[in-house]
Amino acid sequence: MNLRMQQLTKLLEDANYKYYVLDAPDIADYEYDAMLRELENLEAQYPEFASPLSPTKRVGGAALSQFVKVTHAVPLESLQDVFSTEEVTEFDARLRETIPQACYSVEPKVDGLSVALEYIDGEFVRGATRGDGAIGEDVTENLKTIRSIPMRLQNAPSRLIVRGEVFMPRASFAALNAAREAQDKPLFANPRNAAAGSLRQLDPKIAAERKLDILIFNVQLAQGVNFETHAQSLDYLRDLQFKVIPYKLCDTAAQATEEIARIGENRDAYSFDIDGAVVKLDNLQDRARVGSTSKFPRWACAYKYPPEIRETVLEDIVVQVGRTGVLTPKAVVRAVRLAGTTVTNATLHNQDFITSKDIRIGDTVKIRKAGEIIPEILCAVPEKRPADAAPYFLPKTCPVCGAAVMRDEDGAAIRCKGAQCPAQLSRNIAHFVSRNAMNIEGLGSAIVEQLIAGGHIQSPADMYYLSLDDLKSLWKGGGKAAQKLLSAIEASKENDLSRLIFALGISQVGEKAAKILAKTFGTLDSLMEATEEALVAVDDIGEITAQNIRDWFASTQGQGVVSRLREAGVNFASRDVQRDSRFAGLTFVLTGALSQLTRDEAAAKIEACGGKSASSVSKKTSYVVAGENAGSKLKKAQELQIPILSEEEFLELLR
After folding, report:
1. How many other CB atoms are found less than 10 A from the CB of residue 355?
2. Total number of domains constituting the chain
3. What does the pLDDT read at residue 60?
4. Which domain holds residue 513?
5. Of 50, 127, 233, 459, whose CB count within 10 A is highest?
């Protein structure tokens, strides 16, 4: 059985190399998956034969509590930046004073995260980030998820350390940000930030989902192997089946600058971002002769491409509404060639950006690619402005559904408040059916998208009007699955009011606020009728949130959703109405260890009596409950002269 496991491992490793390094797969995905499944089953049956470097471990192991520091056997030096061809020529002239016959390797500079990979007797044992060059962090488990990194090497030296750049391919970056936008999560600014954040995840499963890649660009240490040139070492690594950086040898500074220009002109042809080109002395003995300064090696430099800036005309501003309801202005510009591509659109971010730069339709504007990816407008050229160009302001109503828009309290985003806005429909329904809201099991994003595409749902309330025929077509032979989903939808009608309030997606009304509102008002009708003053009087409900609640229920779309939910028979009443209000208006802070209650139990009892449990002591604190070994909170309470209760005194109040 061990022999079969070894055979499967070899076949899978070969398939990984051909797919992820050579980009020339020779087996179908189905065949690969079948072999992987067979190996997983064998490892489960015979764990004593399972290898920690098995292809089955590529999906990510157990999460770590922290990263361990690693001292690099060979320092990972940084390079001195140069910003012009003149500086490249000066770099060449300095070297030729010592090395008259200097030859250079010119390579694209990958915009990623530098790491060192270590192999002992051909097996991958450790990978670490660059850190400060001398000490990095052990990210071995995350690096194992990168399929282009070989876990085993054939005919390798007894100890080998190589250096490479981990990056996120542009396609993976686009897919990641699209998924994050759908989940209402912050977007990554660029692939480099995304790669760095992914590689430093304590849970390797997250890193595995991010589909990182790597290019190897240096041999740090190869025990028992000697190379005359850097090019020889890269060719050696390619023979060992590493994914190696492309390079070109240049005999003169002129050839090097030509190659730098060629790389820059073709940067869009790479699947990864570059932020420059690296010029390295090729002969390794010559490198040793010129040595390094305290900061950089003297034998290399990194050329940084200047951002390309062009002028064009802003022909229009189109406002798009994202899945989270944010109105995003997009500039439509006269076509212009920029950083290798033709640009017709550019980001304008938000109203604050437009106002601060006084950008108007008809303006001649200066444009560049931010991070070499996203076109953005730098500024207008006022002297070329048409006489009739007027200041631009985002609309006061949603361009998709016509509902009112509102600026976020804590940011620059202007957001549509429509309860049935088509642009937000998928996200609104996903929130409505989520576990902490109406908890309708079986309604995943794919099913929701199919229902929307089929015209079956146009608001969250439409869930309760779906028929068996509407759902059957979503699955092959889907009668049983459709009936199960219908049963889950029907059961959700009996949920407590707090879940429904949270599910409605009213801005700033989270799970905790929804529970407080349900307890306080008892029914949805009472909440709908509540004045702004009555809402503000509720704990944790401020003026902005109160206004959001009033606006949502007053809107035509909100009333439509409520009416449809009522007709469907959804429960509008709370089963947890506040009956004990002895602690109403009081705030308690718990500190130290309680002997008869856990902290959570004590907090729940305080809230059940109408009080509030806070985590820090302030002038607004009513009581501090001090258990054993109470610390700084007790001291602060004494300084503020806040009443302090022992555990027994607190329990007596509860009784």
Report:
1. 12
2. 5
3. 54
4. 418-578
5. 127
